[in-house]
Amino acid sequence: MTALSVLDLVMIGEGKTFADAIEESRQLARHVEQQHYSRYWIAEHHDMPGIGSAATSLVINEVANATRHIRVGAGGIMLPNHAPLVVAEQFGTLDTLHPGRIDLGLGRAPGTSGPTVRALRGAAPERDFSQDIAELRDYLADNGKRRVRGVPGSHDVPVWILGSSLFGADLAAKLGLPYAFASHFAPRYLLQAIAHYRANFQPSAQLAKPYVMVGMNLFAAASDAEADYLASSHRKWMLDLHVGRFGLLPKPQEGYVQSLPEHERAVLEQVMACTVAGGPERVREGLRSLIEQTGADELMIDCRIHDPLARQRSHAYAAQALAELG
Q1: Residue 193 is assigned to a structural domain of this protein
Q2: Is 98 helix (H, G, I), strand (E, B) or coil?
Q3: Domain count within the chain
Q4: pLDDT (tens digit per residue) in 77-127
């Protein structure tokens, strides 16, 4: 059976505070743990007023403290923003605090603007992503290959490669690591990338055969109309982001998509092509279709709903729909 997981950007909604967003994430993590979700990942973003996940490792620790057994991790850490040693120390520490529950997903996009990247890394020269991953894994393994040690290191932190192109697929295949495709916002190369990954996969000590996670947006409710209404917050935020407007997660709006000019609807349809919004039947069929197209081992749901209780219900509907597929 395909596994189900959550991607959380710790969205700060209109009329809410950062503290509210953190508490909503804690509550959602507890809820999906009861629904037998596999993982709860936090995504790193910086300098965006509507996103509260900039200090990613600290948020991961909060979520892990709030739950008992669900795996918690980064989806992902944008490695160009950090020295590999610092990431190894942070995630080695997290694994020490929460043994056997921590994942480390790595991406190569900075996830922010040029000035913010320079503020994060200072005058550090641009580095090779593949080399940074090798260095980071050496620190985690504490294998003696580096003069400097990552303390505490941890053999037990699974490393994932995140991507939205053939580059990440190729790297994950060569390293024998699990691959997560960011089709929830960049779906264009989904099928091509996962086919390349599977065809070129080389087994490793971490992973014997390919493992594919597919990101998707999912908004589930009692009816199609209610789900479309709830999804309007996410859709408006994504369209605003595309045109350079950075704000809080808006409240839902009736008839939002229908109110847009044709060119904006086209942009939204392209960016959010990997989206299911609907009542139980539409959600079940949407999940079935995506699984059949991709053969995904795991689906990771991005669900930015302004009302935290409606968001919890959406994830419960999704879990039920997947269970009905068998």
Answers
A1: no
A2: coil
A3: 2
A4: 999 999 999 999 999 999 999 999 999 999 997 655 667 777 776 656 678
The verdict on residue 19 lying in a domain is yes
**Residue 173 reports pLDDT greater than 70:** yes
**Residues 80 and 129 sit within 8 Å (Cβ to Cβ):** yes
325 and 260 assigned to the same domain: yes
- The span from the CA of 311 to the CA of 309, in Å, is 5
171: enclosing H helix or E strand:
helix 166-175
For residue 106, give both structure tokens.
């790595």
284-292 long-range contacts, CB within 8 A, separation 24+: 284/321, 284/324, 284/325, 286/218, 287/218, 287/318, 287/321, 287/322, 287/325, 288/325, 290/214, 290/216, 291/2, 291/325
CB count in 10 Å sphere of residue 200: 13
This prediction's pTM: 0.95
- Residue 135 in tokens: 């260095």
